[in-house]
Write a structure and sequence with these properties.
Distance between the termini: 57 Å
Shape: elongated
Largest sheet: 3 strands, antiparallel
Structural class: alpha+beta
Strand content: 15-25%
Strand order of the largest sheet: 1-2-3
Mean pLDDT: 77
Number of helices: 2
Length: about 90
């Protein structure tokens, strides 16, 4: 069997891989500013009318009682996130 000599070196392969990955990263992050400039509504899909009320409380599902941030509109809860200021969970 004949041996095939490749013309690509490890350095060339790494350069190409990094350039391709960088190009993909730039392409992925360039979408939002273009939509914002075009006047597309970027508000949350669950927020249609009313006022967003933010409440800070704690979760009681385990003994840690992590801090949470609750966002509601017209008394209906739409989003629950971890509180980033909570020292136990740090928003996780």
């Amino acid at each position: 069997m004949a041996r095939v000599e490749l013309q690509i070196t490890r350095r060339t392969f790494l350069k190409s891989a990094l350039a391709g990955g960088g190009g993909l990263a730039l392409a992925a992050c360039g979408l939002e500013p273009a939509q914002a400039a075009a006047g597309v509504d970027l508000s949350p899909t669950w927020f249609r009318e009313g006022t967003i009320k933010t409440s800070y409380t704690c979760c009681s599902m385990c003994p840690w009682s992590c801090g949470i941030v609750v966002q509601s509109v017209n008394g209906v809860v739409h989003k629950v996130d971890g509180n980033p200021a909570d020292p136990k969970s740090r928003g996780m």
